[in-house]
Amino acid sequence: MLITGAELPDGRIRDVRTDEGRIAEIAESLHSLPNEETVDADGLTLLPGAIDVHVHFRQPGHGHKETWATGSRSAAAGGVTTVVDQPNTSPPTVDGEAFDEKSEFAANSAVNFGLNGGVNDDWDPDSLLSRPVFALGEVFLVDSTGDMGIDEARFEGALAAAAEAEIPVTVHAEDADLFDESVREADAGGTGEDANADLWSQYRTATAEIEAVEAACEAARGAGVDIHVAHTSTPEAAEHADAAGMSTEVTPHHLLLSRDDLDELGTFGRMNPPIRSEARREELYERVADGTVDLIATDHAPHTREEKEAGLWDAPSGVPGVETMLPLLLQEVRDGGLTLERVRDLIAANPAERFSLDSKGRVAEGYDADLTLVDLDDSDPVQADALHTKCDWTPFEGREAVFPELTVVDGTVVYDGRAGDRFTAGLGENVRQP
Ligand SMILES: NC(=O)N[C@@H](CC(=O)O)C(=O)O
Ligand SMILES: [Zn+2]
Ligand SMILES: [Zn+2]
């Protein structure tokens, strides 16, 4: 494939040739070969495909919320070319057999993927870690969707197993002992969009995250493991993890939404860890812009409308986001909050480096041809109706965003927005091939 006249993240205008799944040549001017597919990228920007190291694609077990087909199409349409799935499915991905079962579902993926292995009281590290596991995680230090919370002793066992297997560990760190139970006892909370969802933020306190991150970093240091702290929602937790030499991710919802938005969102804004105050959100944004935070990942956690419309204390936690991450970040670039090169690092170069995907994350010769083409002059409002996730809602309804024109995985167009949302599925591969 020959992509002509594309602007690269550093501002250079170049022709880019892909061949056998790789970026073969980048030059000021390349001539097309006989029968070569060409893409006119005049006026468009070519980015490395985003690597979202935190999605919940729900199969096996919860295909009514999302499937690998719908989730991966949503990823492709959002410029995401690699996703990493989490273990809180049914069965949970905690042994070799469950890993193999999930691999069969993932074979439907339109984009490349990694499959994490999980830890619970029934996990079988021997069979699990004999499989091509992307990372151990997210390791839940508290119950979230799937009730996979574990205690300290089991966490230490998991750290030791990961150190021996030489695989990364990602951690969901909140301390349930520091939740404010009085909030829960005092108020029924209401239902759906009418719920007082701010109570969720009051209940799952910032301190519960900050102290759990501190404890997790200390345990990790003791075990000689560098953990990756998932979805930090507070600047304090992100700063602590960074100072302890660990890596962190921030989600688009913690970056762009605050408790001020919960009036409108109700239970649709309930997730773990919860949305924080506007003051904390602004500080977290600064930590994302200044490099304290390593990467953005979505924690794409779809639940159906009907499920989210329950009472505040019963509704499931989590929001979708894989399709809107890059589009919303590109709007931040348009608005001057982040540079395009910083966005490239947050969504592609840094996740690739952190998780040893050595041939991904950059538009450079020899790298994998996982790419997305965007028009930074053209934004549209986010509309749930136009997204491809199976759950037909988004917490970002109405926000301006820059949706990709075209997404390429291993040199093949998997999403063409210019040809009326055309997808090619089933081409994605496990990025940790044995
Ligand atoms: N973040 C959430 O609120 N929910 C996630 C689980 C998780 O990441 O904790 C889910 O799987 O629904
Ligand atoms: Zn989590
Ligand atoms: Zn998660």
From TrEMBL:
Substrate binds at H56, F57, R58, N88, H303. Binds 2 Zn(2+) ions per subunit. Pathway: Pyrimidine metabolism; UMP biosynthesis via de novo pathway; (S)-dihydroorotate from bicarbonate: step 3/3. Its EC number is 3.5.2.3. GO terms for molecular function: allantoinase activity; dihydroorotase activity; zinc ion binding. It catalyses: (S)-dihydroorotate + H2O = N-carbamoyl-L-aspartate + H(+). PROSITE patterns: DIHYDROOROTASE_1, DIHYDROOROTASE_2. It is an enzyme of class 3 (hydrolase). Its cofactor is Zn(2+). One of its GO terms (cellular component) is cytoplasm. Zn(2+) 2 binds at E138, H172, H231. The active site is at D299. Pfam families: Amidohydro_1 (PF01979). InterPro entries: Amidohydro-rel, DHOase, DHOase/Allantoinase_Hydrolase, Dihydroorotase_CS, Metal-dep_hydrolase_composite, Metal_Hydrolase. Residues 45-413 form the Amidohydrolase-related domain. Zn(2+) 1 binds at H54, H56, E138, D299. Keywords: Hydrolase, Metal-binding, Pyrimidine biosynthesis, Zinc. One of its GO terms (biological process) is purine nucleobase catabolic process. Gene3D superfamilies: Metal-dependent hydrolases, Urease, subunit C, domain 1. Belongs to the metallo-dependent hydrolases superfamily. DHOase family. Class I DHOase subfamily. PANTHER family: ALLANTOINASE. Catalyzes the reversible cyclization of carbamoyl aspartate to dihydroorotate. This is Dihydroorotase. It comes from Halolamina salifodinae. The lineage of its organism: Archaea, Methanobacteriati, Methanobacteriota, Stenosarchaea group, Halobacteria.
